[in-house]
Amino acid sequence: MKTLLVHIRGLVQGIGFRPFVYKSATRFGIKGYVKNLSDCVEICAQGTDIDLASFIEQIKRNPPPLARIDSVTVQEIDVAESKEFLIKESADLSNSVTDVSPDIAVCELCLDDLKGQPHRIDYPFVNCTFCGPRFSIISGVPYDRPKTTMAPFRMCSQCAEEYADPSDRRFHAQPVACNSCGPVYTLHLPSGNEITGINEIVDATVSMLQNGSIVAIKGIGGFHLACNPFLKEPLEKLRTGKRRDGKPFALMFRDVEALKEYAYINEEEEKLISSPVSPIVLLKQHLELLPEVNSGLGTIGVMLPYMPLHYMLFEKLSFPALVMTSGNISEEPVVIDDSEAIEKFSGIADAVLCYNRDIYNRVDDSVTAVYSGNPVTFRRSRGLVPSPVSLSFDVDGIAAVGAELKNCFAVGKGNKVLLSQHIGDLKNAETFSFFRESFERFTKMFRVEPRLFACDRHPDYLSSVFARNSGLPIEEVQHHHAHIASCMAEHNIDREVIGVSFDGTGLGDDGAVWGGEFLICDLQNSKRFTHFRYVNMPGGDRASEEPWRMAAAYLYDLSGKSFAEEFKPFFSRVEERMLEAVVFALEKKIRCVPTSSAGRLFDAVSALTGLCTVNSFEAEAAMRLEACAAKDERLETYRWDFDGTIDLRPSIRMICEDVLSGVPVPVISGRFHKTLFDVIREICLKIRTETGLDSVVLSGGCFQNRCIFEGAVKELKTAGFTVYTHSLIPCNDGGIALGQTAVAAGRRRK
Ligand code: ZN
Ligand code: ZN
Ligand code: FE
After folding, report:
1. Ligand 3 midpoint to CA 501 (Å)
2. Residue 331 pLDDT class (50, 70, 90 cuts)
3. Residue-wise pLDDT tens digits, 523-533
4. Which of 210, 361, 416, 535 has the fewest CB atoms found within 10 Å of its own CB?
5. How many A from CA of 128 to the centre of ligand 2?
6. Model confidence over 715-750: pLDDT tens digits?
7. Residue 21 sits in a domain of what CATH number?
8. Beta-strand (E) ranges in 574-700?
9. Which domain holds residue 54?
10. Given 307, 340, 355, which residue is the final one in a domain?
11. CA of 503 to the centre of ligand 3 (A)
12. What is the CB-side half-sphere exposure of residue 144 using CA atoms within 13 A?
């Protein structure tokens, strides 16, 4: 008889790990205990050599489906013999971090319980150790009921029995609840009346949605605004109410079968959308939808039901999909509070469906897609946060505040980076307070004491201001260096690479707005090899909202002041006085900033082809250009020059000629995209010749463009490069904080 003390690290809490250990122990006749510590699961195991070996092998080989084992350490100890195997209460002793599980979509077994388990018939908060809310309800670690928003609900005797029974699927499932003891829904009507009772609520909600009403529905991480996507009227009302001009709405489909009628879905995409994360997946559209749903973009953001209530609604709805857009107005954070929802949505929603359990951590739906056969993440939130990124070096005490748009921050603990959920645009006051609140909660929950702040070089980003106000030492990281470093960190690369950052914006070392950059960088330094030739961006922020201004900037670069005459037909939709003002600004260099931004280049080309002269939502021009691109191998690239910088003036001239001679826009767009692959390949080859580097890292918001992403990867691989792209971390500014952390740590090490 021998006693071993085993420590298991990784994602091992809140996902049925201890019951699994208990069952394994029983199977091999092991005595002792298992308990959660703050940074790991501890097992004390007594048995014969052979039983102990089988027991540990079983734990390593067949952990529960959602577990991730990072390390197992074993040491022999000397203690008195135990008579049984126990699951001990959590000990809150250590100062290290335990992986808190992200929220998990309701599992099949629980859905069966809705139909067959007497105390959970139609109980909409059914969950077990394999599924249910986690991060959204957790306020501290170790993960135990008192540290969740389930704390006020007293378990009934039946739930308590299941909770205490190691052979039960709900053994130590912290949010365990049933019809007689758990949270309940209430449907609030504008009259002030309330409907209670889940069946009455589902019936009323279904009939409202069928009749074209909008219903605000509380989800796992915040409210959704739901309506019938096949009726024009609620869609229009929703757009006005949310002040969301043209941005596509996400749809929730009853199931994959129903989804297949409206979108093309391959095996990888199906795997992603049905995974426990249950994210929004961007798919190619099949059947026509009302233009009010997705502005005719040819793609739709879709997800499947992930809460019991979603399933209950679809069981009765006469149509296969619902608009499920985040419950917020304009750029504000998603609403999580019941009374705030009732007040805020009074002008939009015809009813508000709440439940009496608080959401502690707000999490939006995560947004993903499959590019080149691999998942990519554009918004990292529900189902993915707070899974850490493990690095091979120490990042302890580093707090990275991210960029300003699509903000997400990060804190370093040991060699782990804990990235926050998607926060949003900090220029919005409510979003900035969400940032500050979440920052405090994160550092508290994971017990991180920041010692060094990492921020963007832009002095006016509210995140940078926040970092400066901390009074702690600050490490500034250039925006595009941070993008590349973020992708390097995701792949644990710690050496010099070629970085291609195609992005919308970001302050460069010379004060210009960068965004079309070829860098040679490691985790300390970054050197700019080349970039797109600067053009003057007239009117600052307005240039990114009104792509015709960038078209004017590019044409001015081509022919100077006379461009407005020479290229008159391109500005037929622009007010003459506005165009004159832009010509004047370009000529006198008033409110003009030089830029190498690839995002602005897309804007210019999109405007020149007439696809989009004024954006009705962020990146619309680039999205429309991508959506129509012809994918024909035989298309020729446009001409471009290199004289130290990448000069696209010949391309711009050829594009204008093509437009004027009536070449179809898809062909122009296809040739333009191909030209960029050409640029990426040729410049990387040049760098390889000069430096011998052959790893290329792709990052920056423009790689959300499927055509550019897949084209660049293919071209570079064909040319013999090793190519690194993002998967779980966004290539857009949502990934900046990880890059800032990696660079700050890299410099601190030095
Ligand atoms: Zn379950
Ligand atoms: Zn109960
Ligand atoms: Fe960026």
Report:
1. 8
2. confident
3. 999 999 999 99
4. 210
5. 13
6. 999 999 999 999 999 999 999 999 999 999 999 998
7. 3.30.70.100
8. 592-595, 641-642, 646-647, 695-699
9. 2-87
10. 355
11. 5
12. 12
